[in-house]
Amino acid sequence: MAEAPCSGQRAGEAVVKAENAAVEMYRFAALMLGNEAEAIELVENTVAEADIDPCADPGAVRGLVRDRVLDGALEIMHRHDPLSFSAPPADDPAGSCIDDESVPLSGDQISHFVEGAGRGPLRAWLERLSQAQRAVFIQRAVLGSSNADTARAINRYSKPSIWTAEAVSSLFRQALCSLATSLLHSAPAAQV
Q1: DSSP letter, residue 159
Q2: How many of the other CB atoms lie within 10 Å of CB of 92?
Q3: Within a 13 Å sphere around the CA of 133, how many CA atoms are in the beta-carbon half?
């Protein structure tokens, strides 16, 4: 009699990994959409619609769910504002205050902003961004997506497909400068 490929403790570990991935995707979706109820619904629907084997390779399952949640979030953003991805922003004439934006924020920094004391200032800052700025920043900083991957994702909702890696890079640099300025201005108030 052949033993099941995934049973007992291994199946339990797979379920825990899947639950952790769902929580991570919820946090990402909530930041993307700015609406926790929409984020929960998106993640629940994505997981329910995906044919997920808890014993499958967790990395592959995580990637599949991540891609579907990202696509769903972009679709919702586009539905809320059909012109949101219609044109990449003009280059910042003042130049960038960031010389190297190739490394996304670390997981620890994002966790601090999302869960810790930085949650309020980060979410307040995100609310001031356009849909395109928010989509670029969250994909680059939270997911660690490349400029090219971010442009491809946005281009699925931009007709014609006009987003380039360079446009994403420029917008991401602008967002990093804006965030740094915002956090600098909120730091004294947080210490009071």
Answers
A1: S
A2: 13
A3: 15
Taking the C-alpha atoms of residue 180 and residue 150, their distance in angstroms, rounded to an integer, is 22
| pLDDT for the residue 191 | 45
Q: How many helices (H) and strands (E) does the chain have?
A: 8, 0
Inform me whether the pLDDT recorded for 143 exceeds 70: yes
The pLDDT of residue 3: 44
> What is the arithmetic mean of pLDDT over 33-48?
91
CA distance 30 to 179: 18
CA-to-CA distance for 169 and 75, rounded, in angstroms? 22
* CA 139 – CA 70 distance, rounded (Å): 8
Kindly tell me if the per-residue pLDDT of 39 is higher than 60. yes
Cβ count near 166 (within 10 Å): 13
* DSSP classification of residue 52: -
d(CA 152, CA 138) in angstroms, rounded, equals 15
Nearest to 145 by CA among 133, 156, 137: 137
The answer on pLDDT for 83 being more than 80 is: yes
